[in-house]
Write a structure and sequence with these properties.
single chain; alpha+beta; 5-stranded mixed beta sheet; 2 helices; about 20% helix; about 35% strand; globular
Length: about 80
């Protein structure tokens, strides 16, 4: 499951919780940037930044792990996503 959420650092620091009944959950940044945070129920309060994009050569959707939310700030993850 996923939800589009206007992500900010406060949300990343305090609200990364998987909803009840879900084993994992995606919080997706709006605007079509491809950046999202994957949260697992077993790791409450932390997540992993990912970049989702469509491979132009194959047309397949690809996912690239950027880093843990404990390793990078949201702004650093956004910059990494642009570089990728």
């Amino acid at each position: 499951m996923a939800v589009i959420k206007d992500l900010d650092q406060n949300f990343v620091d305090h609200s990364l919780i998987c909803p009840p009944g879900e084993s994992k959950f995606e919080f997706v940044a709006p605007g079509g940037t491809g950046l999202y945070i994957l949260v697992h129920a077993s790791k409450r309060g932390q997540g992993t930044y990912f970049l989702r994009y469509r491979d132009p050569a194959t047309g397949k959707t690809r996912h690239v792990k950027i880093a843990s939310t404990l390793e990078l700030t949201l702004e650093e993850a956004r910059k990494a996503a642009v570089r990728l």
